């Protein structure tokens, strides 16, 4: 019903519809996305957290519902609202501190927010929790590269390749890091 109301440009009615639906199914990510899009459509996106606080007053049982926070974080991440997704990921991790998938998504949000150092820490947690996580292994050297740790990035790319966890991006990253390192040498030693 909410989507139909949005289609008819009845965003205020859709807002109420999505808010009521979230009261009964707060673990469903598309509901959060539609709720957030509707808030955006009625020009209240700056009040997003206030809207969620109002929602929690109506449905206080969701305050301790870890799926509510995870769904909200995922919806915000999908809508490129990275900084707004971070508190919800942090709250979700309070419920599930050993869930590598949540740590990975949190690392992704931190990366998009430009916080490479914290993203790297989260990815290291992912690898500790799931040593076979190919995506985390491939992103750790990339983050080191972004942090300027070129030699460390190259070592980690080599480690990823030697352990058979590479993707096509691994080779591109390795080439880029080695090229960057070679460029630094040429600048530092121009007459050799």
What report would you give on this structure?
The protein has 192 residues and is mainly alpha-helical. Helices cover 76% and strands 0% of the residues. The protein is built from eleven helices and no strands. α2 (11-24) runs antiparallel to α3 (29-41) and α8 (116-129) runs antiparallel to α9 (134-146). The N and C termini lie far apart (71 Å). Mean pLDDT is 82; it is low at 186-192.
Distance between the termini: 71 Å
Radius of gyration, Cα only, in angstroms?
A: 21 Å
Sum up the overall morphology in one term. elongated
| Number of separate strands | 0
Beta content: under 5%
Can you give the mean pLDDT? 82
Element string (H = helix, E = strand):
HHHHHHHHHHH
Specify the structural class.
mainly alpha
Biggest sheet layout = none
- The number of distinct helices, counting runs of at least 4 residues, comes to 11
Residues in helices, as a percent range: over 70%
Please identify the oligomeric state: single chain
* Weakly predicted, low-confidence segments: 186-192
Features:
about 190 residues, mainly alpha, about 0% strand, elongated
In short:
The chain has 192 residues and is mainly α. It has helices at residues 2-7, 11-24, 29-41, 48-58, 66-78, 82-95, 100-112, 116-129, 134-146, 150-162, 168-188. The chain contains eleven helices and no strands.
Q: How are the SSEs placed, and which strands pair?
A:
Blueprint: H1 2-7, H2 11-24, H3 29-41, H4 48-58, H5 66-78, H6 82-95, H7 100-112, H8 116-129, H9 134-146, H10 150-162, H11 168-188
Helix pairs in contact: 2-3, 3-5, 5-6, 6-7, 7-8, 8-9, 9-10, 9-11, 10-11
């Amino acid at each position: 019903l909410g989507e139909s109301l949005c289609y008819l440009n009845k965003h205020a009615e859709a807002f109420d519809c999505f808010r009521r639906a979230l009261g009964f199914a707060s673990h469903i990510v598309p509901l959060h996305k539609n709720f957030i899009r509707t808030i955006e459509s009625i020009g209240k996106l700056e009040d997003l957290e206030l809207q969620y606080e109002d929602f929690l007053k109506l449905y206080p049982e969701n305050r301790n519902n870890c799926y509510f926070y995870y769904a909200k974080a995922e919806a915000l991440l999908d809508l490129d609202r990275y900084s707004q997704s971070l508190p919800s990921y942090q709250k979700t991790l309070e419920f599930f501190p050993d869930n590598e998938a949540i740590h990975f998504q949190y690392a992704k949000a931190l990366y998009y927010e430009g916080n490479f150092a914290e993203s790297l820490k989260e990815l290291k947690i992912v690898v500790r929790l799931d040593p076979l996580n190919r995506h985390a292994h491939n992103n750790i050297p990339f983050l080191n590269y972004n942090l300027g740790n070129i030699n460390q990035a190259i070592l980690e790319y080599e480690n990823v390749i030697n352990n058979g966890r590479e993707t096509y991006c691994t080779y591109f990253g390795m080439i880029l890091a080695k090229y960057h390192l070679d460029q630094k040498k040429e600048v530092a030693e121009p007459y050799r």
